[in-house]
TrEMBL record:
Gene Ontology molecular functions: GTP binding; metal ion binding; nucleotidyltransferase activity
PANTHER family named in the record: MOLYBDENUM COFACTOR GUANYLYLTRANSFERASE
Keyword GTP-binding attributed: yes
Keyword annotations: Cytoplasm, GTP-binding, Magnesium, Metal-binding, Molybdenum cofactor biosynthesis, Nucleotide-binding, Transferase
GO BP terms, alphabetized: Mo-molybdopterin cofactor biosynthetic process
UniProt-recorded name of the protein: Molybdopterin-guanine dinucleotide biosynthesis protein A
Natural source organism: Desulfosporosinus hippei DSM 8344
Amino acid sequence: MKKDKAFLEIEGQSLAERSLKVLKTLFPEVLISSNRPELFTQYELPVIGDEVIGRGPLEGLYQGLKAAKHDVVFFVACDMPFLEIELIRFLARWSLDYDVVVPKLQSGLHPLHAFYHRRCLSAIKNNLEADRLKIIDFYPVCSAKYVDEKEMGRFSDLTKAFCNVNTPEEWSHINKTITPI
């Protein structure tokens, strides 16, 4: 994108602001994980930086889980403009029984729209130390609930709920389909 996706705007509101609005409605604690924490100071929320730069989202997941006050944490990417409160609540129903609760669509898993329990910390640390940086690579050593499309069937537009911005073309398409939250 050649620009920090968190600060792309829809209707005068950054993607970060849109996400924070939803997350503050749902959770008593909201943290921001970033490899560039200085960019997020205006939100007056704890910003958790990466301890080791260059290890991607798995490093952010690890640092965020370590910093959180709660045992179960919902992680979401900053580039998902259409978060649905009821869908997140639906996924939360399994969050105490499993180490990972992750949506599984036909397009694949959505590890950056998922719940993680602190019990994952050692598995994540092991993968970081072994330079296995793909988030889903630690799932086999944890108890994971893969919530498939059939289970999420009552939600009308899963494609929209799980869309994220990776290219200027996707961003252009998203801007043509926006609806206020």
